[in-house]
Every structure is written in C-alpha cells, then in structure tokens.
Amino acid sequence: MPNNKVLVTGAQGFTGQYVCDALRIAGYDVIGLGQSSASNLGYFADLCDLVSLRKVISAIKPNYVIHLAAIAFVGHADFNNFYRTNLFGTLNLLEAIYLECPQVSNIIVASSANVYGNPVISPVSELVCPAPLNHYAMSKLAMEHMSRTWFERLPIIIVRPFNYTGHRQSIDFLIPKIVSHFHARAEKISLGNLDVTREFNDVRMIARAYVDILQVDSGITINLCSGIGYELNNVLQLASELSRHHIIVDTSPALVRQNELKSLVGDPSVMQQLLPNLPTYSLYETLEWMFEGAEK
Predict the structure, then answer these.
(1) 136 catalytic, yes or no?
(2) CA distances from residue 80 to 77, 178, 181, 237 in whole angstroms, order as listed
(3) CATH number, domain at 267?
(4) Can you give the residue ranges of the NAD-dependent epimerase/dehydratase domain (predicted)?
(5) Range of 88's domain?
(6) Catalytic residue among 18, 136, 164, 210
(7) Does residue 251 lie within any of the structural domains?
(8) Predicted confidence band at 169 (pLDDT cuts at 50, 70, 90)?
(9) What is the residue-averaged pLDDT of the chain?
(10) For residue 40, how many other CB atoms are within 10 A of its CB?
(11) How does pLDDT run across 187-233, given as a tens digit for each residue?
C-alpha cells in the first residue's frame, strides 16, 4: 500500500496498542510515538516540546496521524496536566505537522463523549451542545475548539468515543476493576454510584473505527458509539454469570464523583453511515474476552 505511513501518538497506551495492531492488519506502515526514550518506540517526543515534535514530524513525514496521547483518567489528581497535555500538547502537534508535513492526508484527533456532560437528550448526536462537567472533559472540548481553528489548514477529523473497555485496560477503570474482582473471587467490591447508564463498547471495535476513519473526508466530528447503554447492575450480573461467582457490592461515598454523569449513550447514525463494516461485540462477548485474558 503506497503512501501508507501512519504516526500514532500514545501508541503504547491501552487504545494505542489495539489501534496499531488493527492498522498493521489493514496493511499500514505504523510508527508509534512515545513520550520518552524509555518507551521502546523508534521515535519519542514530549507533546509539550514543540521543537522536538517538529524534529520527529520532519523525520517521519507521515501520510496520516492518529492522535491518541492524552491524560485520560477522569480522576487524575493534577488538573493542570489535563490542559497541558490534552490542549496544549495537541496544539503543538498540529503546529508541528503544519510546519513540517502540511501535505498529510488525514489527522484523527481523539476527543471524548464526556464533553456532552449530562445531556437531556438520549441518544446523543453530534449536534447536541457540549456541556462538560469536569476538567478532563473541559480540556477535551477546549482541544476540539482549538483543533477547529486548523480546519482550513490541515485535514482534521475529531472523534468522540463513548465508554469502551477490553483486555489489558488498567484496573483504575471501572470494567477492568469489576472483572479483576470477580476473577479473583473477591468477597466484595467497593464501587461508586450504581445508578448510572453507560455504553461499554469493545476496544477492538473502536480500534477498527480509527483505521477506517483514515479514509473519511476531513472536517467533521464523529461519535464512536453503539447506542446501547447498560446500567451498572447489568454489568455486575453478567460478570457474575461468566465467573460463576457472587460478590457483595459496597457503595462507597468516597468513590462517587462530583457532577457524576448519570447517563451517556450516543447516537451512532453518522458512524454507521461512514463506517458500515465495523465489527460489533456484545457486552457479554467483551466481558468473556476479558475474563479469558485474565486467565493468561
């Protein structure tokens, strides 16, 4: 495949590993960008260092860029890091691309469905006005607005993934924490608010979406979602069935976030129209895969 060089930032992260695998399967030449020399990738640069980013972009001259690197854990303690990495790091990357590789074919910038906040409409389409409720979501929305100022100069697509999970995701996140406790046959698990509804999509579907979006016309925003929401009790029930284990759920006030998102389910119409061949996975299939992975 000619002109198939893809630069992936955050390549060693949870999502990045699956995106890189999916790109290779599709025949792309994948180049991962790490944050430091300890990343074991061929190239590394701090997103906050424009000079080093320019050197890397100049050396690689990518045909495509998938920008995944971010502070993604909503509970991250240092609020300044959200903006430093998610907003200004992205600004530096786009400027480096513009200065060193303006002929790039497409750039995918990963935002988040968290920008919608607690929408009054469900499912949530791309036309719903964002109303972020925390610093993570606010940094992502600011990043979106900043990215749009480059639309006339660079081919950019903004994606808003709804919740997704899979094998090898950190147990800092909800679903891996649940799987880990059931797999270990723990007596109880401490969780926050159980009265929430979320999508829990499969990272393999999300990874394939990033690959397919490379060939979509730029200048748009796309929800990455299934439109299927689950209450937390549904997840606990499926985990119990798969593990054949019952667990006591302890609701801990310390784990209830301020401004908790009560329900976040997306409208997949745009994604389905643009990406008709995406694989689909039920939550049962995803959890089953995660339990199988926990055995290894």
Answers:
(1) yes
(2) 9, 29, 32, 38
(3) 3.40.50.720
(4) 6-224
(5) 5-166+201-226+261-280
(6) 136
(7) no
(8) very high
(9) 93
(10) 9
(11) 999 998 888 999 999 999 999 999 999 999 999 999 999 999 999 99
